[in-house]
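Q: For a teaching handout, I want to show students what a protein-ligand complex looks like in token form. Below are the inputs, and the small molecule is phosphoric acid mono(formamide)ester. Please produce the holo structure.
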Amino acid sequence: MTELSWTRKDLLGIADLSAAEIQLLLDTAESFREVSLRPIKKVPTLRGRTVVNLFFEPSTRTRSSFEIAEKRLSADSLNFSSATSGLVKGESLVDTALNLQAMSPDLIVIRHGHPGVPHMLAKRVAAGVINAGDGAHEHPTQALLDAFTIRQHKGGFEGLKVSIVGDIEHSRVVRSNVLLLHKLGAEVTVAGPRTMMPVGVEALGARAVYSLREALEGADVVMMLRVQLERQSQAAFPSAREYFELFGLTQARLKAAKRDVILMHPGPMNRGIEIASDVADGRYSVILEQVANGVAVRMAVLYLLSGVHREAE
Ligand code: CP
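A: Here is the structure, written as tokens, with phosphoric acid mono(formamide)ester included.
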């Protein structure tokens, strides 16, 4: 597949993408990575293009890395704040989007608490829509940056043992990651308490286990997930101390994984609940590399969806 074969208007989820499209996104991100290493971190690629960032849920990493990616590509950005918009006066999300569309943005990046909102928006606006996280459904750019980080360290995905541990039920990160890693040939295990394991998770392409030890045994990659208390209607475990005793990652427990294991976490981390501080900051951790790679991956997504590569034909 060549770069010129990318024709999608939107990036709504990993479920829609072929393995070749995923590899293309990762290869394109590789070519943008060095921009962030330059003294002057800017290229003119998206000069004259406008990107609207619509975040209806809190975000540190995704929002700031999209903004940085847009600036490094020389795009013009509008950071839309729902708290100071017509939404607080009762305007609907669709009307808000149509009004923004009337100002002719090229791309809209959206995070929303309800699954499917980016899909609904994509049908109504001419701008390309990028899903920056929709409820517990998908977080495609997170899975892409995770894959980019894994590829840097492990070279590829075929037969790689990847274990994802934590609140599987409420995680959009796990859903996008399982879909992506399965498409690229990795062997994915998900682990967590039964109260945090969705029914039918195997259908996505993962093995489900209920013991941390079993998940860690022989793993090449361990990805720890945050317990998402804000998405739980009732507590899925008795206390943070009990959760840490059963599913918290410690140095001693990590020894069950391969000697060259890499440790990942999408953030934000709950230190002392799903992960011990010394492991999060320790020699196997690539957590801050994930954040750095997020900029290159989002530059690649913005570039391909903008269609500028087709204009050069
Ligand atoms: N990984 C992630 O989505 O982090 P933020 O919520 O800070 O964007």
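A: Two things your students might notice: The beta strands are 50-55, 76-81, 107-112, 128-134, 161-165, 187-191, 206-209, 221-224, 262-264. The chain has a mean pLDDT of 93.
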